[in-house]
Amino acid sequence: MFVQLLKEFLGRKAGERLSVSDEDGNALIAQGLAQPVTDDLITPAVSKALESAFGKFSDAMNLIVEKNLKAFADAQAQSHKHAVPALFGVNGHGDPKKNFGDWLLHVAKNDEAYLEKTYGSVRHKAPLAEGSGVTGGYLVPTEFSTRLLEVAAEETFMRKRAFVQPMNSAALQLPYLDITSVPSTGTSALFGGVQLSWKPEAGTVDETEPKFKMLELKAHELSGYAVSSNVMLQDSAIGLERFLFTLFGKAIGWFEEFAFLQGNGAGKPLGVLNAPAALTVNRNAANQVKYVDVASMLSKLLPSSQRKAVWTVHPYAIAQLVQLADAGGNVVWVPSVGGAQDRVPGTLFGLPVITTEKVPALGAKGDVMLIDPSLYVIGDRQQIEIAASEHVNFLKNQMTWRVVERVDGQPWVERPITLQDGVSTVSPFIIRN
Question: Smaller CB count within 10 Å for the chain: N or C?
Answer without folding.
Answer: C
